Amino acid sequence: MLSFLSxxxxxxxxxxxxxxxxxxxxxxxxxxxxKENIPAIGMGTWLTFDVGHNTKNILAxxxxxxxFFDYGGxxxxxxxxxxxxERVLGKCLAKISRDFNLFSATKVWxxxxxxxxxxxxxxxxxxxxxxxxLIQVHNLVNYENHLENLFQLKEDKKINYVGVTTSHGWxxxxxxxxxxxxxxxxxxxxxxIVDREAESYLLKLAYEKKISVIANRPFQGGNLFxxxxxKELPMWxxxxxxxNWASFFLxxxxxxxxxxCAIPATTQTNHMHQNMQAMYGRLPDYxxxxxxxxxxxxI
Length: 299
Known about the structure:
By secondary structure, the protein is of the alpha/beta class. It has helices spanning 7-13, 55-70, 85-95, 113-127, 143-155, 172-181, 202-209, 223-227, 245-254, 269-276, 286-298; strands at residues 28-30, 37-39, 43-44, 75-77, 103-108, 132-137, 159-165, 186-190, 212-216, 261-262.
C-alpha cells in the first residue's frame, strides 16, 4: 500500500489500488443519452502529455497513466490542439497492460471541414484505437459543419457520443445556443470552486436537457494550489473522506449532480493518486459545498 496515503483513505481505497480493486466503490455518473456509467474523475492531457519525443518523459507519463487506470479511471480527454499529446498518449497506452477500460475522448479543431475529417482519422491512428467513444468540437470552431459530420459518424456507429467544448468562461452564450439547438450527448466547459459562472445557467440547462457535463480546468490551471499553499484543510473535510486539497477541489465539482466527469491533468504519479482519491468515500451535500466555497474565499 502506498505509504503517503492517510490511514483513513487506505481503508476506503485499499482494494482499488490493487489488481483486485472493487470498482463498485468508485463514484460513477450516468451518461444521460445511453445510461452508461463512467467514473466521475477522468484525465486531461493539455500541456501534461505534450512532451514531444523525449523518451524519459514518455515513460514517466506512462506511469501516470497506469496509476490512473489502477484506480479505475476511464475517461481520457485530448485534442489535436494539444501538440504531441495524442501521439504521446498513444505510445503510453501501448506501453502498459491492456487490463483497463478506456473511454476515449478527443476533439476536432479546425475551421476547415474537410481537414476536420482527416484530423479525426489521424487522431485515431495516434491513439492507436479502433474508434473513439466521444468526439467534441473544440472551442466551437466551425461547429455547424463539424457537428453534421459527427452526428453522421454516430449514426454509422463509428463513435458513441457527440459533444462541444469551451473553456475559461468563454462563449457561454453561444454554448447555450448550441445546447438548445442540437441533440448533444456531452458539453465541456470550465467549472471549479472559484470559477462558478457555469452554476448560473449552463449546469442547470445541461441537467434539464440531459446533456452530460465534462468539467475542465478543475484546478484553474494549478492556480488553486497556489491559493492554498501552506494552508490546512478544514477539520470537517475528513467527514467527507477528503484528506488532500486535490480531493477537496474535485469533490466540490463532482458533488454537483449536473457534472458527469472532471478532468484534472498532471505530470506526476503522486498527484494522480491524490486526484483519484476524490472518487472514493462520501460526497459533500449542498450545505457543505457552500462551506467549501466560503472557506476558499476566506483564505
